Fold each of these.
Amino acid sequence: MEYAGTYNETQTGKRSAGWRQEIRATLALAWPLALTNLSQMALVLTDTIYLGHFSTDALAASTLGANLYWAALALPFGITFGAAAMLAQEKGRKTHHLREMRRTVRQAIWVVMLTALPILALLWNTRWLLEGLGQEPALAALAQDYVRVLMWGLLPFFGFAVLRGFLAALERPGPALWISLAAIALNAALGAVFIFGGLGLPPMGIVGAGLASALSNLAMFGGLAVLIARDRRLSRYRLAGRFWRTDWRRMGEILKLGLPVAGQMLLEIAIFSAAGIAMGWMGATAVAAHAIALQMAAAAFMVPMGVGQAATARVGLAMGAGDRRGAARAGWCAIGIAAGFMALSALALIFFNERFAWAFLREDDPAAMETAAVAAGLVVIAGLFQLGDGVQVAATGALRGMKDTRVPMLLAALGYWAIAMPAGLALAFPAGLGPSGLWWGLAGGLAVVASLMTLRWHRLARRGGLTARRRLAPMRA
């Protein structure tokens, strides 16, 4: 199924398509990317729902483990986003784009695999790290059991992310979407059997959740690699050709773009991970309530994240072709689409907060009533900061299409760590607002980041970006 035309099909010479054409092209590329993100989120969401019905302690421990897990993988994951921006501009330049894109995919996979190796060693010591952060020893031990199995799906996940960026640059996100949807069903089936027991297997609880997710990530990478190799149009890129060859200059370019993206992602992931750690100081109920609200906010966030990925591709294609007006139009369309969706998402979270909270809990659990009450309040706050969250990720995606990654990282550092976290801790503890105070601080920080990212995009879009007048020469392998 064809989701979007090529860049040349939506452009005439150097003049960009009209606003309506750009909106259609962005939506056509964004909705499969958003659904792919949602499907990956569904893997975690399925585990959360299963574990919430298994026990409150299992839910709390998986949340602590997942917070550390996502913070640790920010570096290689961010590099895949930097590679996606390179691939989009290489496709837009047209000259030797098959060779250039093949080499970028190859080197990106090498870079993310090498950077992931020390992360595996870090995650193996999850219990020690969590206890050092003041978490309860029993929850830290359970979290380590979860992460030590979950971590073996990391390398396949990064490989899948690189291939997904390659397909986004070609404006063919469909294969990644179908593979991700199949992975949801696989993870749900495996999770039900592994967590609760069945088919002759004993209940494995939290370990079963990690195993199901790891196997699903492996299936996603393997399935997408096979699909690309068997597709007539995609196979001509020969992505596996001479895979062992290194290109240090290209690796350096990937790192130059990807490291600031990784830094920004680490800042964003770490702020919510730190919030989860702070919730741990308030007890298992606060952690479980935080997990529920975070899952709802993160699920909604996957859609504007897909729009941001589409913005990276559309802006990058225009910049590679030297069409600065098209690049500006693509970015503003993405920001508007993301803002509109998140406004609707905010209304849903605010008006149906209690229903969302109870979806994760078992009614006969003695701790469920208290957890649901706290979670419902946090879901309302999550709804209120949805608009800012959507705008900032769309603007950030557009900036990546211009290969602007360093300044957005600094803006994220300011908003998250100079404003959000100090304000949240002050409201939670000295002001006595508890979990809701922490989330109000996060909401304020996200609003600041959204404003700063939009102003940055406005400035660069007006002056034509960073690379419109100095195209990068093709690099030799």
Amino acid sequence: MHSLVDDIVVKQHVGTLEYTPKDFKAGIDVRWCAGCGGYSILAQTQRVVATLGIPREKLAFISGIGCSSRFPYYMNVYGVHSMHGRALPIASGLKTARPDLSIWVATGDGDCMSIGGNHLIHACRRNINLNVMMFNNEVYSLTKGQYSPTSQPGQITKSSPLGVLDNPFNPAALVLGSGASFVARTIDGDGKHMQYLMERAAKHNGFSFIEIYTNCPIFNDGAFDFFAQKSLRSDKTIVLEHGKPMIFGTNNDKGIKLDGFTPTVVSLSDGSNSADDLLVHNEKDTTLAFILANMTYHHELPRPMGIFQAIDIKTYEDATTAQIEHYTSLPDAYDYDKLLRGEDCWEIE
């Protein structure tokens, strides 16, 4: 995967300003546990925003409650550390009032998909132009290790000492079904891939959701090792690239074909299949996006990483602005007496 930004210190001229990632460091101690994936996410975010050509005063980071929600403290821009699960309504209100801002939401699987789940689905369906980074460590960490909406069946946690009984949410499928126009997935250990997705999300006009698998070394260490370790990654994951056949494997010797609507793994080394026979990724194909998202918990299939969907839909704030402009242009737009009385007032004589 070619990254649009280098993973070295970059400089970007923004008008008369010159930004580096250091300009977005808040100058306070970053307080996550040693080995937390949040450090990587923070570093890649600071690298990417330095290249976007957006002045710092036009950036805002909003969060709820949780380890991920410390994020606004660590970015040298405007931000709000809000209430548990309430990052999205606050970010939505800010974006509607100030559509000129680039607004990012840092949230976790518990904050976003449990107490904040209702806000998530409605932000998706409205297609508000926000950039959501969901740290998914499949556990509640800040509150000391209870199971979360993405914890796996059988997972031992402080609140499930005999093993989790619930089926987990599939975040990619959930937000696709709720109407998100940009849906992607990456992992904390792949900095260049994370940068690429962040830049794509920032440039997308609509609701952008990036699920970031984030290791919690204290309460769920190694949760993603079975597909994310370097020795396994080539065989256990597949990178989605628009317009390219779905090839994976240590020697690029495997691929994905569809049997009806069911993805299957085929060999490219035994002569029975070639790259021309494989499924080709298309970010604009909404049906394909669901098929790929539903590969997530099928261990016989590689786990998709990359952009599932990137489609163009009118945004909520654009619709709001157009509505306001239309009604304020009408002849009686400022007839306050009519506004107060409405159409349901009458006089009794």
Amino acid sequence: MKSQDYPLFDQITPEQPKALSVSQLNRGVKLQLEGAYSQVLVRGEISNFKPHSSGHFYFALKDAQSQISAVMFRGMNSKLDFRPKNGMEVLVFGAVTVYEPRGSYQIMVRTMEELGAGALQREFEALKKKLQIEGLFSPENKKTLPLCPFKIALITSPTGAAVKDMIQVLGRRHPAAEIIVIPCLTQGAGAPASLIQGLELLAKLKVDVAIIGRGGGSMEDLWGFNDEALARKIFQCETPIVSAVGHEIDFTISDFVADFRAPTPSAAAEQVTLGVERYRKDLVHFQLSLKNVVLSRRDFAFQKLNHVKRQLVQSHKNAIGTLKEKIFHLVKRFRDPRAELLQKRQRTDELSQRLESGFKNKIKSTRRDLALKQDFLLNRYPKNLKNLKQKLVALAQMMDHLSPLKVLGRGYAFAKIGDSLVTQAGQLKEKDELQVYFQDGHANVRVQDTKIEAASAKLKK
């Protein structure tokens, strides 16, 4: 064999062997690789995952540019708390090994940790279970939302779309409410501490209710609301808290520990004004009912007013008719005063007859009546005053002349049996008891006998 036939031999130095076997090369590579990479930490995506019947896991780790084979034996993968699958991003720890028969190398994985959403989900579930056992999610610990809050705090990012949506909904549904925006970080490592500071301001601001949340995003974006310290702060807060993080399908620890969980920020704004909307509907109903009552009362009042009006008109007609009749009679009397005087004279005659019967009290009453009538006639008929006076004087003299008292004053007396006046001796019987009336009094006497003829003769003499 000549060097010109194999030009590569010319590059070999005298210190090196002329040629290596495949086995020698693979062994050399194995020693070099396994010595240099006995402990490696590699991040990649699982691909071509094949669980073997022996319990070993065979798969590949890849990134955007390349991939490497990997194996995790049964004794190692039995300690995993998750099931690897294609597309899962993981962080593995192990060693690089070389399989000499094929000249291939791979990573022999000792431990594996899930990265991304999967790892976060396991952390989320662990914290959720812990806080649930402690009672932070218990319904009996939830505070009731106020029916009509007038001071509402929004703990969120001041520049996000969520705060604009909440302000718009609150302004439309409850324009009388005071809205206070507490600016906070809602994403990143500093989000939990910022949100906790926002919650601490609630006691100073004395708000009625608070909404904490943000718009939608990935699990990593919403992760700040899964902080344990933030959850405990929400639980300890005296102000009712509504959690509105992400979209309807998103759930965070804040949602579970808050007093109420809303699927979206807009829904949270609707929830805190639910009582206001109910009051508004009730007010519309009351207004309608009040209007109906007022209209009904008005119609009833109009009916009653018309009825009273008709009665009043009829009453006035009757009253006017009565007044007309009275006026007619008065006018008639005024036109013929002699008829009234004649009537008074007849009345005087009647009184005189009654006076003659000995009713003293009637005489006094008649005198008072005559005096009143005299005054009445004097005021109404001044032209006839003189004639009326003369007639009244004549009547008074006549009355005085006919009065029994006048007769008694001349030395006479009269006798009565009970209430009956004795005018004839024939009215008397023996042993009758009489009352004999004199000018200054009366005496009770008893009849012994009666002599009618003798008495008559004496009277004639």
